[in-house]
Amino acid sequence: MKPAVLLIEDNEGTRFGFFRYFSKEGYEISEAADLASATHSLASRPFDAIVLDINLPDGNGLDFIETVRGQDPCIPIIVITGSGDVPLAVEAMQRGADNFLSKPVDNAALGAYLRKTLEIGTLKRRLSAQKRLTQKEDIFFGRNRYMQEISHIARAAASGDTPVLITGETGTGKGMLANWIHRHSKRSSQEFVSLNCSSLRGEMLARELFGNARGAFTSADQDRKGLLDIADRGTLFLDEIGDMGMEIQAQLLKVLEEKTYRRLGDVKLYRSDFRPICATHHNIENLVREKLFRQDLMYRINLVVIHLPPLRERLDDLPSLVAYLLRTLGVSEAVLEDDVMQVLMDYPWPGNIRELKNVLERALLLAPRGTRLGREHFSCLIQHPPGRATQESCSPTVQEIQQRHIQQVVEQMNGDLVQAAKSLNISRATLYRRLKQIRDSQP
Ligand SMILES: Nc1ncnc2c1ncn2[C@@H]1O[C@H](COP(=O)(O)OP(=O)(O)OP(=O)(O)O)[C@@H](O)[C@H]1O
């Protein structure tokens, strides 16, 4: 495919010469005589590079560099300045241009610059995509008064070693906060082991937690470590602990009291020094009243309680949270058109921050590269009732089909993850990761 270049230049003669030369060189050239038509062109299709004159009839090209950079940090920009205008060229580079040339422009020199700059642009994009994949997600606390208090308690929890209970609706960031506390605690060099107690029941959950000896049950062909073993000296994050069955609750209480446990089918006593951090979307006290949760276990795990508020109760943080999430997705907040924030403010966010992130990611996928995100990219939030926005408005993607298949196999194996991993021909760790992704993608 030909590289697409947008030439923003008011001089018709220069544009003509440029068009003829670079079309022959194999580029697809679009022309804009002023900033207004350049903005229009950028909104209507993606470009691989921009060649920009500084003095234009309706504004200064220098300011335009920042606008473009806000929408696409990687697109190469080459600036054309008047002859000998070095300070202007320096300013252009400071504002984000990749290269500059003085007038009259030597097309051959510009061609060489363009080739090099396009190569750099491709590399930058690749790096930015790689960074996105490898970057560890960091938590956003925000300036909301209540969240400031939470950040204070979280810091205190990280410097101590007592159990923590995190409550809040789905997608409010309970898992992220648990991980943040671990990473800022003295246990950070050890494992952070996460287990979702609602996805496994009874003996299956016991097997995951305690491990098993060879022959403990039909498919136990070897000794297997449990997560308690792996979490030794680290942190064990028990997500959705409110859904844990009463029998396992009794076993967990014993482990918390004695720090020792037995693998299934084993007589040997194992020791694990793990720090428990638990999370639930339930009100644990109600569960205790309903006799669904042991009171003694509640007192063991709720030494520090952190309640994360739903997103709709911290809307004062929404604009900076959106900017933060967009940055983690590799774009700046300038990518949003002005009236979009009101759409985001008006939506009740039943899936909280997870749903917000999914909605932003989907809007970025829908919009052509280099264009701004308008209301039309958030039509799910306007047209669909809350909670269904990210699921039903689009046909399933390959990833969604894969996720369904994994869920079906886990169900067929009655939740036996060892067998499910074998049947899917993936490792147990990969299966855990995929199951977590499935949970994370649900609002
Ligand atoms: N404070 C935050 N800062 C940045 N991103 C966040 C924050 N909270 C949540 N997210 C985003 O939302 C996603 C879901 O967060 P997380 O899994 O921690 O929520 P949760 O409350 O544990 O949800 P569930 O109850 O469904 O397990 C995260 O992967 C992250 O992308």
Automatic annotation (TrEMBL):
Keywords: ATP-binding, Nucleotide-binding, Phosphoprotein, Transcription, Transcription regulation. The keyword Aminoacyl-tRNA synthetase does not apply. The keyword Glycoprotein does not apply. This is Sigma-54 dependent transcriptional regulator. SMART domains: AAA, REC. The modification 4-aspartylphosphate is found at residue 53. Coiled coil: none annotated. It comes from Pelotalea chapellei. It comes from the Bacteria. Pfam families: AAA_lid_14, HTH_8, Response_reg, Sigma54_activat. Residues 4-118 form the Response regulatory domain. Residues 140-365 form the Sigma-54 factor interaction domain.
